Amino acid sequence: MSLDGHGPANEYIRYPSKWSEIVDTIIRFKGLPHAKLSIGFTLSALNVFEVVRTAQFGDAMGIPFTFGVVHTPSRLSPNILPQATLEQAAVEIDDAVDSLTLNPSKRELRAISRLLRSFARQDREENEELWTKFVQFTNDLDRSRGQSIEASLPDLVTSLRVEKGPWQRNIFHILPKDRATPVSKAS
Fold this sequence. Notes:
The protein has 187 residues and is mainly alpha-helical.
C-alpha cells in the first residue's frame, strides 16, 4: 500500500483520499488468505514529520514499512527543507524507532533518519527559488482543493516557521482569477 502520511496528512498529500476508506481497505486486505502487505512511503518535503505516525500505524496493524524518496519534482524533495527542520525530523524518528515491534520497519526508520541528517549536513546555500516553488505549489493545492497545509501538516509548518517565518499564503504560481500578474515574492 502506498501511504505518504497518517490521517489528515495522507488525505492532504494523496488528495482526494479518505483515511477511513483506506483503513477499511487495509482491514479487508488483511483478511484475505495469503495476503502479504507492506506500506510503501515516499519521503518528500511534505511528510518528513509523518514518518513516525505512518510507521507506527503499520506496526500496530502488523504491516512493515518501506520507503523511497522524491527526487523530482525537485520542489518536493526533502533536501529543500532547512537544516534545522531536517534535523528535528531525524530526532523525532530516532526517538520513536524502539517503539516499533517490526524489525524491518525499524531498519527503514533508521535509514530515513540517516538520510535526513545527510541532507542536513550537505554544504548548500538555501535555494530560494526551489523554496518559493514549494510554497507556490502548496498554496495552489490549498486554493484549488479548499485545504490548508497548516491544518493538514501542522508539525511541518511549525518547524518551518522557525527558519522561514510565518507561512506565506500570498505566493501563487497559478494566477488567481482576480489578479493580472502572479505574486512571486514573499511580502
